[in-house]
Amino acid sequence: MSQVYNWQLGRTMEYPHAEHHPDRQFAFVFNLNRCIGCQTCTMACKSTWTFSKGQEYMWWNNVETKPYGGYPQNWDTKLLGLLEDVNPGGQNWNGASFEGMTVFEAAQKKIGPEPQRALGYLPTDEEWRFPNIYEDTPAGPKGVSEAYDKEGAQLPAHKTWFFYLARICNHCTYPACLAACPRNAIYKRPEDGVVLVDQTRCRGYRKCVEACPYKKAMYRSSTRVTEKCIACYPRLEGKDPETQGLPMETRCMAACIGQIRLQGLVRIDKDGQWAQDRYNPLYYLVKVAKVALPLYPQFGTEPNGYYIPPRWVPRGFLKQMFGPGVDHAIDSYMVPDRELLAVQQLFRKSNRIIFSYRIEEGEKVFETQIHGKPFTLYNDTVIGLDEKGREIVRTQVEEPFYVRPDKHQNSI
Hints:
Elements: E1 2-6, E2 11-15, E3 24-31, H1 40-49, E4 62-66, H2 75-86, E5 93-94, E6 97-98, H3 103-107, H4 125-129, E7 163-167, H5 176-180, E8 186-188, E9 195-197, H6 207-211, E10 217-220, E11 225-228, H7 233-236, H8 251-254, E12 261-267, H9 281-288, E13 293-294, E14 305-308, H10 315-322, H11 326-334, H12 338-343, E15 356-360, E16 364-370, E17 373-378, E18 381-385, E19 391-396
């Protein structure tokens, strides 16, 4: 085991391979406050990559309802339970530093039929078979079928809650799938950090499926090799004619109706930290505003997918899922400052990747108080720029109204 630094955990940790980092890293931010669970992203990915024989149970992108659903079923609670069994009562945060065991460290303590490089489990066929079972069906009164909890629907405080969690492969900095592969068939591309499978080397041992804590490496029975999200890397390379050679967002990102997604490429220093890039929108959301948090950072893979947590969910549940930064993230999101409000307008405003932004100040619209804190709305203009600093999108905080001419049958 090598010692590597995981900035999400605030400490070094053990990892089976020596520390090595790409020049740039594919990363994304999902705003869970906006997700409506429409599954448009899911079907965009499905119709592009996983529509063939043997891929029936492959959902590289999925949207699951928490706390009821998951794909495969109970993927996160099962692994959290395994970690707790190995390290009872020790999976705790001390401020911003995680004092528990990662999946790599816990694997060395677990005694089983054969050694593991990353603690994990193989889901059953049944767990893969039903991607949406138990979702959007909160529990009703105990012992009463086909009934709902009438008290649970009271507003503004209610007992029943849920939220939609959109997921793809996190293209982790320290991938558990890569660590577990006995064939060295999984690798990270040096140009963008995308995690790929060399299918000529894969022999279908499913060690990656077992090790991936997010269960985004999937076995294809018809070919007997593993497949996974490839971050639509031809689009990242600018090979889609629509963008005229510019890096483009993935299919799931571009299809998002709720405008919850923002994807990009961040520069990486030699020590693995994000290089300072103050006006890259992802760098701003993750490193400056700190409203976007990694999913289950305690697993230790340093995922490169980040989430703005849903503001209505109990904080204890969210802290287990996103770590100790939840309070700050939600408080900042609920009463956003001028820059955060402007940057949020960039979500899904262009199919091309936005590498930086600038803001042109606008007039003050109004002042008010939100949750007892002063809030001022300015109609600023935010401009998204490509890799060479050229403008690719321009939008305002107050989006304009467009009146359709009354000459079409569907005019309303």
